[in-house]
Design a protein that fits this description.
By secondary structure, this protein is of the alpha+beta class. The chain has 15 helices and 17 strands. The N terminus is likely disordered. The protein folds into three domains: about 300 residues, no CATH class; about 120 residues, no CATH class; about 60 residues, Arc Repressor Mutant, subunit A, CATH 1.10.10.410.
Length: about 500
């Protein structure tokens, strides 16, 4: 197997030299903001009993006519706007004809020739690399097929039509990605934008967002090679692994004198490899034609304006605002805006804290203390035992000197266990920081008397010992002394 090198970007080092990888993604995103399907009123909840969410339209009963779901169209338009894409005011549904057990109509209603959304772009920042723009070719709206279940019976396959007719956005990228890392960054950024907009929940493990991965290889600067398509990959990690394997496989085939066959492949996550599913050269003619049961979609100015006005602040804009207006570091701003739930939690914290909680200190606390605790407990920020309001109260107690940093950590651990408010914990357990100079001076005197040799060393020029005296004094005070007062009094006592 060939190995990747980072000499000039991402390259695969083969026996005949370097190879470049060319990647495009077709992402199927389920429109979850609507509780109904694309052309019927059937429910779309995940995990329902098989065939429990199937209307007469979904089952292709004779005489049933599809009616477009306005909310699905609206969400697709809003998504296109969030990707800075062209919105086509006139679009059309086509029939894609093929026969399979999970497609009762014998065709899928899709958009081939006149999609709802045209060209757009996404800016990505792969780890350790410069920002790059990935082109979006189009977004078209289509209905999903059902699902075949092969593991329910030893000799039969069962059909579940719950997904039949579910509204999908197919978001097709340009072949602009050149490494697994870029593809991963693109998919994460796209998922983030969809979740900010609210048009897709992005739950790849539930199948509501999945990617078809197009991969080819070429000598740097050559024409595009023959590509393969790996279908229905359902995690960012698996997309990156599929690209890695498939690109190396193609290099090995080409360098051994073979040729790449344009085909559809599947990714096996257990083995970390792709395998052939069917040849594209033998693919059926889908015989696309305009759906005779559906009029073209025509969007008026009021609908376009309503879609645009309903868009939230998107992750890139929010990140820039956090940096410029709140003075948060670029790293912290990127972390806090990567997921919409995190951004909402942080903004609720700032709103609750008002002028009492500095944004910079709040961002550091969320990323280090809160995220560290949530990771340890295996919880998401949505399931945090500590609310934004409680977090703001804790930070305000630090800001006004009631709690030291050490005491704040103790209080936070108690909050995680009990869900109590920090002020109540401080009061009940006597954890308030003290600035009583008399009490602190008395403990300092004891510390210096017990460490006379170190006092002599300090006064002889060993300044690093100052931290030792601070630590001993804080320990003697049970961590409740105001560190600033301790520092001032120690400097005075040590001369």
């Amino acid at each position: 197997m060939s190995t990747a090198t980072a000499s000039t970007g991402y390259r695969i080092q083969g026996a005949t030299g370097e190879w470049e990888v060319v990647i495009g993604l077709e992402v199927h995103a389920q429109i979850t903001a609507s509780k109904a399907k694309l052309f019927s009123g059937a429910a779309t909840a995940f995990g329902a009993e098989p065939n429990a969410q199937v209307s007469l339209i979904d089952a292709a009963m004779p005489g049933m006519l599809p009616v477009p779901n306005r909310e699905c169209i609206r969400q697709a338009v809003r998504t296109g706007m969030a990707l800075d894409a062209a919105i086509n005011r006139w679009s059309r549904f086509d029939r894609k004809n093929y026969f399979y057990a999970d497609l009762p109509q014998g065709y899928q209603i899709s958009q081939l020739y006149h999609p709802l959304v045209g060209e757009g772009a996404i800016a990505i920042e792969p780890e350790g690399a410069d920002e790059k723009t990935i082109g979006i070719e189009r977004i078209h709206v289509e209905q999903d097929a059902g699902k075949l279940m092969h593991d329910q019976h030893p000799t039969r396959s069962y059909v579940d039509l719950n997904r039949s007719g579910v509204a999908l956005m197919e978001i097709v990228s340009r072949p602009d990605m050149r490494s697994p890392a870029e593809a991963g960054a693109y998919l994460r950024k796209l998922r983030s934008i969809l979740r900010y907009v609210g048009s897709c929940d992005g739950n790849m493990e539930e199948g509501s967002m999945r990617a078809d991965v197009n991969v080819s290889v070429r000598k740097p600067g050559d024409e595009f090679g023959t590509r393969t398509e790996t279908k229905n990959v359902n995690s960012v990690r698996f997309v990156m692994a599929a690209i890695e394997f498939e690109a190396n496989r193609q290099v090995d085939v080409l360098e051994s004198g073979g040729r790449i066959v344009q085909e559809t492949r599947l990714f096996d996550p257990d083995k970390g490899e792709t395998r052939s599913m069917r040849s594209k050269e033998d693919a059926h003619d889908y015989r696309y034609f305009p759906d005779p049961d559906l009029l073209p979609l025509e969007l008026d100015d009021a609908f376009i304006a309503e879609c645009r006005d309903s868009l939230p602040e998107l992750p890139d804009a929010k990140r820039r605002r956090f940096e410029t207006e709140l003075g948060i570091s670029a790293y912290n701003a990127a972390v806090l805006t990567a997921e919409v739930e995190t951004a909402r939690w942080f903004e609720a914290l700032l709103a609750a804290g008002g002028d009492k909680v500095p944004a910079k200190a709040a961002s550091n606390w969320v990323i280090s203390d809160l995220f560290g605790a949530l990771n340890r407990l295996g919880l998401s920020v949505e399931d945090s035992p500590v609310s934004p309001e409680q977090g703001a109260e804790l930070l305000a107690l630090v800001a006004d000197g009631t709690l030291s940093g050490t005491l704040a950590k103790q209080v936070f651990e108690i909050m995680l266990e009990t869900r109590e408010d920090p002020a109540a914990i401080v009061e009940a357990r006597g954890l308030k920081q003290t600035s009583d100079t008399g009490a602190i001076e008395a403990e300092i005197a004891k510390v210096l008397a017990a460490n006379a040799d170190k006092v002599e060393q300090y006064r002889g020029g060993k300044q690093a010992l100052f931290g030792f005296f601070v630590g001993q004094t804080m320990k003697a005070m049970g961590g409740k002394a105001n560190p600033q007062v301790v520092n001032e009094l120690l400097k005075k006592a040590l001369g």
